């Protein structure tokens, strides 16, 4: 899953793809690099980010979604807004990527009505407050999976098929750096606990990687991002949300080839 952030305040690219022509160029580049999915977002969800009105989110992403869909791409809309999700699905998106752990149950209903897949990511609170919600009772993975299953049940209550759900443990969302590392290290356990739901891991360029290179800016964390992706893939993650598609794909292909010998 290649990332296209159409925002002026993205943590990873600093608004590099905010202009429509730049967003479309980014989509074309991701597809050329071999992305299977394009994840479009018009609102930054980094810790502390301010909310963006649905109408503005739609304005930012809609032409990019149409462009990607017209080229046969499978598009995911990264939003917590039912209004944005509905517009994106009508424009050709096929997946709703919800980073809020279903704060608004109507989001699941929109996906159900459109027959879309639904990435349900574990998180707590809004981006402005989530880093104050990092205390978990007992075992981290056990608590996280329990909260995720509760959200999945609320999605089902809206009529969303269980077959439509993808689980994302939410690395960096309501998690400390150490908790994010622990979750990544326990990917295989998470995959086992939530089976048969497929697991998506998004570790690319995230701030927990500063623990290994404190001076590295977001776009200087390629090595750590690739290491995390290869580990997650080997542990059973089915989808990897990444910024650097070609480099990640190369690393995973080489790793698999070597393991097969």
Structure, explained:
The protein is 43% helix and 12% strand. It has 261 residues and is an alpha/beta fold. It has one domain: Alpha-Beta Barrel (TIM Barrel), CATH 3.20.20. The protein has a 6-stranded parallel sheet with strand order 1-2-3-4-5-6, covered by helices on one side. Helix 1 packs across helix 2, helix 2 packs parallel to helix 3 and helix 3 packs parallel to helix 4. The two termini are 27 Å apart.
Q: Which helices and strands, and how do they pair?
A:
Layout: E1 2-5, H1 20-32, E2 37-41, H2 54-70, E3 74-78, H3 82-91, E4 95-98, H4 106-114, E5 117-121, H5 140-157, E6 165-168, H6 177-185, H7 187-194, E7 200-201, H8 222-234, E8 239-240, H9 245-260
Parallel strand pairs: 1-2, 2-3, 3-4, 4-5, 5-6, 7-8
CATH first level? Alpha Beta
What order do the helices and strands follow?
Answer: EHEHEHEHEHEHHEHEH
Instruction: Give the structural class.
Output: alpha/beta
The backbone outline, from C-alpha atoms, is globular
Q: Specify the number of helices.
A: 9
CATH topology: TIM Barrel
Strand order of the largest sheet: 1-2-3-4-5-6
Radius of gyration using CA atoms only: 17 Å
Number of distinct beta strands: 8
* Average residue pLDDT: 95
